[in-house]
Design brief:
The protein is of the alpha+beta class. The chain folds into two domains: 2-154, Rossmann fold (3-Layer(aba) Sandwich); 159-255, Formyl transferase, C-terminal domain (Methionyl-tRNA Fmet Formyltransferase, Chain A, domain 2, Roll). It is 25% helix and 24% strand. Strands 7, 8, 9, 10, 11 and 12 form a six-stranded antiparallel β-sheet that branches. α4 (72-79) runs antiparallel to α6 (170-179). The two termini are 43 Å apart.
C-alpha cells in the first residue's frame, strides 16, 4: 500500500499511535470523509474514530458477528467452517462490534489455505469498500446492527498452536496445516529436529489395518507420506526440514527412509 501510494506521489504518514495529540491533529487537518482500516492490528481510540465525517470503515475478513478479532481467516479454517466472507463495518469502541454496511460470502474449499483464502477475501474486500464509499457519497448507505447471536472471537494465533498432535484426527490436523500456511506453518518433530508440514490431505485408513501408534509413517511413496493419526490417515504432500527448502514428498524421500518411522518423537 505504501509503495503504491509513493508511486502515485501521495503523502504517506505512519504514526506509531493515534492516541497522541500530534496524530489526532494530523487526522483533523486531512478533513477526511472516511478513514478506511484494514488489518491495522491496533485499537483506534474513540477520539480518532470520531474525526472522519462518515466515520472509520473497517474491511473485516469474516461474516460478522462470527470471528471478531485478530485472526478470522485462521480461526474459520481451524473450526472447519464451510463459509466465510468479508464484512464492511463502521468502527466503534468495541472490538469489531460496529454496524455492518455490506457483506459478501465465499465457500471454504477442502484445499483452501490461509493464503488462498486471504487472497480471495482481499479482492472481495477491495470491491466492497469501493461500493460502500460510493454509497456514502450518494447517500445510499444503510447500516445493519450486528445480531447478538452467533458471536465468536478469533484470538491471535500463537506459535505454540502450530505443533501437530498426532492423537488428533486426520481431518483436524489437515485443518491445522491449511490454517497455518503460510505462517507460522504446522510442524512436528523428526529425529529430534523440526519438520514443517506445508501441504497434506486426509485419506481413509486401509481396511483391516493393524492398530498403530499415532505419528507412525504407514507408507512413504511418490504420492505422499501417509501418517497414522488418532483417527484416519494424513497424507503429507509437502514438507521441510529445519534449514532446508520445502519439498514435495517425492523429492523429500530421495534422501530419507521413513517407512515405520514415527513423527512427533523427541
Amino acid at each position: 500500500m505504501k509503495r503504491r501510494a509513493l508511486d502515485l506521489g501521495l503523502t504517506v504518514h505512519q504514526p506509531a499511535t493515534f492516541k497522541s495529540p500530534e496524530a489526532l491533529a494530523l487526522l483533523r487537518a486531512a478533513e477526511l470523509d472516511a478513514l478506511v482500516v484494514v488489518a491495522y492490528g491496533l485499537i483506534l481510540p474513540i477520539t480518532a474514530l470520531e474525526v472522519p465525517k462518515w466515520g472509520c470503515i473497517n474491511i473485516h475478513a469474516s461474516l460478522l458477528p462470527r470471528w471478531r478479532g485478530a485472526a478470522p481467516i485462521q480461526r474459520a479454517l481451524l473450526a472447519g467452517d464451510s463459509m466465510t466472507g468479508v464484512t464492511i463495518m463502521r468502527m466503534e469502541a468495541g472490538l469489531d462490534t460496529g454496524p455492518m454496511l455490506k457483506s459478501r460470502s465465499t465457500p471454504i474449499g477442502p484445499t483452501d489455505t490461509a493464503k488462498s483464502l486471504h487472497d480471495r477475501l482481499a479482492e472481495m474486500g477491495a470491491e466492497l469498500i469501493g461500493e460502500s464509499l460510493d454509497d456514502f457519497s450518494g447517500g445510499r448507505i444503510r447500516e445493519v446492527v450486528q445480531p447478538a447471536e452467533g458471536v465468536t472471537y478469533a484470538e491471535k494465533v500463537k506459535k505454540s498452536e502450530a505443533l501437530i498432535h498426532w492423537q488428533q484426527s486426520a481431518e483436524q490436523i489437515d485443518r491445522q496445516v491449511r490454517a497455518f500456511n503460510p505462517s507460522p506453518i504446522a510442524e512436528t518433530r523428526f529425529n529430534g529436529e523440526q519438520l514443517r508440514v506445508w501441504d497434506a490431505e486426509p485419506i481413509e485408513a486401509p481396511a483391516g489395518g493393524r492398530e498403530t501408534m499415532p505419528g507412525t509413517v504407514l507408507t512413504a511413496t511418490q504420492e505422499g507420506i501417509d501418517v497414522v493419526c488418532g483417527r484416519g490417515i494424513l497424507r503429507v504432500l509437502r514438507l521441510q526440514l529445519a534449514g532446508r527448502k520445502p519439498l514435495p514428498a517425492a523429492q523429500f524421500l530421495r534422501g530419507q527412509r521413513l517407512d515405520g518411522m514415527r513423527f512427533g518423537d523427541p
